[in-house]
Amino acid sequence: MTGTGKFLGAAAAALLCCAATPAFAQDATDELLLRLKEKGILTDDEYQALVARKQSQPQSSASSAGTPAVPNAAAGESAQQAAAERLDDKKLVRMMDSGVGFQIGDVGVKFSGSVNGFYVHDNADAATPGNTVAGGLASVGENSSAIRNGLLPGFLKVDVTTNQGGWDVGAHFGLYPGINSGLGDSGANGAGAPQALQTSGIDARQTYLTFGKARFGEIKIGRDIGLFASDAILNDITLLAVGTAAGNAAPSNTSLGRIGLGYIYTDFQPQITYSSPKFGGLQFAVGVFQPLTTIGQSEVNGSPGFQGKITYDLVPTDGGFGAHAWLSGLVQKHDATAGLPAYTGRAIDVGAKLSYANFGLTGYYYTGTGVGTIGLFLLSTDEFGRKRDSDGYYVQGTAGFGKITLGASYGRSTLDLTDDEPISALVRSNSSYVGQVRYGLTGWVTLIGEYTHTKSEAHNGNDAKSDALAAGAILFF
User: Considering the entire predicted model, what is its pTM?
Assistant: First the structure.
């Protein structure tokens, strides 16, 4: 409020404090309040409340005439009650302290999201028998260009939160649309269709509720990102860009980034998960998950999957040393199907991200049996249902110089044959080098250029290589 506004507000308050007001003062008060409202110094609700308070006070004529004051208490109380109802916090809309959203009484509604797009040129390896790798992620065939999404599609997240009976509760929805067209009902991540009269899909990845207390922790029920390997992708620099293009000639709404080239995709899964309070920088989470089937099989599983994670955070002060470390794992039993035995998939990973000033270093490793590669339970067994072992890792460094951030990483995922499995063109490893430069154009918009070299190797000695160049931008709000 300006100095003039403060003076006028004080004048209004002083006039209202008079217990008995002469007629000319009453008129002056009414006029002053009206002027304050017209100038925007008083809101309509504030104006009505002050008028109601004035009306509730005894009214008097000029005391010099000896006329007694005429009380108007009943009318004043009624007007004051109506004004108080209009000022009820539960009926007011306020801006939130942070984020894009608003506060309606005790209920917060917050919107967050992202949009991205990249020009990607993918230089593929020639299609020859020697370049055939089953499960390989390097591009084979024709060179291609595309305007496409990166590892992230776009997303719009809506969070509705409040406190009821001492519990912090919330409803959370995440819609993930992309910019590329898909075929029919293939969804947001199905095969791309760069042709006329097609539309893009929306991937409803998140639908979950939460309730918790500061000393209790939080329960999550619904569909959200998993625990195992989630920190691997969330700390990967290709999350903001493209990484390995995969299907660039007919792009879906996501690229691979480093999925299958250093870690297994965590996925968004139905779950009931408990997250503890933080004990210093330490926190743990455990969850019961919808059991996933072995990709390519039609098993029905009688037991859920289980996942857990432990994290530790050291928050940097004054640009000093900071750290984020994690350990996660999963276990899931797969029941027998016709001709194939039951098996149990298990995996564990460990990683850390260290930071000092504008520099960062990340290291990650996972190992598992019966979990496969690229996605959970993809190529996890041979044709006889015997478990394959797999592992992988990536290392990554970043350096910031003002608005410019440079990043580089290398990662590799491997898949072993079972003891009695014959040598074939099945993928033995997928790996990639990534070089990236980012420029913070605004607080929301980041410009990104990236180079990715991808290599796939088979157990029989076949291999394929591809190179991708990407340039574009990503926006977060």
Answer: 0.80
